[in-house]
Amino acid sequence: MDNKQTNKFSAEKNNTPTKVVVDKTENNCEELKKQVEEYKNKYLRALADYQNFEKRVGKEKDGIRINANRQLIIKLLSLFTY
After folding, report:
1. What is the pLDDT of residue 24?
2. In a domain, 36, yes or no
3. pLDDT score of 18
4. What is the span of the domain harbouring residue 26?
5. Alpha carbon distance, N-terminus to C-terminus of the chain
6. Is 30 inside any structural domain?
């Protein structure tokens, strides 16, 4: 190797501390994993809330349908009793 190449490599070693870069990358990776876990938990909670909402709306619809049928039957029976 000539002198320029040797100086280039030694300058790169001095200017780029690889341990610091690796540590930052690992920290960044850990932060991203925590964010993914947090978003996953939020998604699962929102999904459970939505499923509960669907069940509640379904029960309310059934209740309204039953009440409407009951009222219709009462009206029809009152017509035939006179």
Report:
1. 81
2. yes
3. 73
4. 18-81
5. 115
6. yes
Place of tokens 């790169």: 12
Distance CA 2, CA 8 (A): 10
- What's the structural domain count of the chain? 1
Q: Which residue matches tokens 């029809």?
A: 76
Predicted confidence (pLDDT) per residue in 45-80, tens digit: 999 999 999 999 999 999 999 999 999 999 999 888
Q: Is residue 12 part of a domain?
A: no
Looking at every residue in the chain, the average pLDDT score rounds to 84
Q: How far apart are CA 35 and CA 43, in angstroms?
A: 12
- In the 8-state DSSP scheme, what is residue 32? H
| CA separation for the pair 51, 53 (Å, rounded) | 5
For 72, what's the count of Cα atoms within 13 Å in the CB-facing half-sphere?
Answer: 6
Averaged pLDDT, 15-27: 74
